[in-house]
Design goal:
Chain lengths: 223, 133
């Protein structure tokens, strides 16, 4: 039972006052004349709410990092550990992948195969490059004895940046799924909604990365 | 349909977050929007990296400058990539965003505020050892 089917019957149970008049003959509300939002708007709005809650979860990690960033317990600080070139390349990768993701979503709307698959492939490659650099950094830190158990600063660093990396990993899996779904089923309405949600997810990860490279890396290196 | 009506009535004319008006918009125009976003974001990022790297900027102002740049870049991403605009049709998206920003602000500023006060009032480890003697 879909919302669209309900509205075509002329009876909309989800809208107050839209049904047949009650025995008391209550007047219809003004907004009852309006039609329901499309399923695309509703699902994207719902996903937007999820993304905002995800951002709030990240803000808790940010708060923990901001509180603990000075607690190095005699161990290395951010200044000793971070490399500005690596962060610059990681940032460029994510920013360009966000752009490529935008190109892919335009390609999907225009039913342009080469634009969609090309954009998605570029997004995936840039995302994978970002992830490779991040894993490389983490393993290097652990190898030089600056793992998450070394100090409160490093615990909060690994929690915050690792959580973002985990999101990127899940985003990559989702991206490959979307490519396979379009390949198998074409640009169906439900798949277009999933592409829209994926694009929102990927752009949001880039926004969170802006916070991370500013608060963790640039401030850690500058101060 | 009055513009003054406030509430969560998702409507046909509403925009989904991340969505653009599809009517009459060419591919080139869509790409142009993303290109503008990419250009602005690259510019702000480059300035942020330069500010943290150079010694030309007065040191105590660096954290504030970086914060301002980060918030500006998040705004650029929201407008050009997520298409969260101030138009009437994305009112619900902006309302949700405003609430999210409020919670994020309370969480981060509140934590920092409370923890600096606790740090200030806490007895340090050396003093602890002194007292035990």
């Amino acid at each position: 039972m879909s919302i669209a089917q309900e509205t075509t019957r002329g009876y909309e149970p989800y809208i107050v006052g839209a049904g047949p008049r009650s025995k008391a003959g209550l007047p219809r509300f003004e907004h009852a004349e309006r039609t329901l939002a499309s399923k695309r708007v509703i699902s994207a709005f719902g996903f937007w709410i999820f993304l905002l809650s995800d951002i709030i979860m990240f803000s808790a990690f940010f708060a923990a990092y901001a509180v603990l960033s000075g607690e190095t317990a005699g161990g290395p600080s951010g200044k000793d550990l971070f490399s500005i070139t690596r962060v610059a390349i990681e940032t460029a990768c994510l920013l360009l992948s966000s752009f490529a993701c935008g190109v892919a979503s335009i390609g999907a709307r225009a039913r342009n195969d080469s634009m969609y698959y090309g954009g998605m492939t570029a997004t995936a490659l840039l995302g994978a490059a970002f992830l490779f650099l991040e894993i490389n950094e983490f393993s290097g830190l652990i190898a030089q004895g600056a793992g998450p158990t070394r100090s409160a600063f490093l615990s909060s660093f690994f929690a915050l940046v690792g959580c973002h990396g985990l999101h990127v990993t899940l985003g990559l899996l989702w991206l490959l799924t979307m490519m396979a779904q379009v390949f198998a089923k074409g640009y169906r309405a439900d798949i277009m909604r999933r592409i829209l949600c994926f694009a929102l997810f990927w752009h949001t990860l880039d926004i969170i990365w802006v916070g991370i490279f500013t608060v963790v890396y640039l401030m850690g290196l500058a101060l | 349909m009055s513009d003054t009506e406030i509430g969560l009535h998702l409507h046909e004319s509403d925009l989904a977050p991340g969505d653009e008006r599809a009517d009459g918009r060419e591919i080139a125009e869509g790409i142009r929007g993303y290109l503008i976003g990419l250009g602005l974001a690259t510019l702000i990022t480059a300035v942020a990296f330069f500010v943290s790297w150079t010694s030309l900027v007065w040191q105590p102002s660096i954290p504030i400058a970086l914060m301002v740049l980060a918030i500006a870049q998040m705004g650029v991403h929201l407008v050009f990539f997520l298409h969260i605009t101030t138009g009437a049709e994305s009112f619900n998206n902006v309302l949700a965003l405003a609430f999210g920003v409020l919670i994020v602000f309370l969480l981060i500023v509140g934590s920092l505020w409370i923890m600096t006060h606790l740090n200030h009032n806490m007895v340090s480890m050396e003093q602890m050892i002194q007292m035990q003697r």
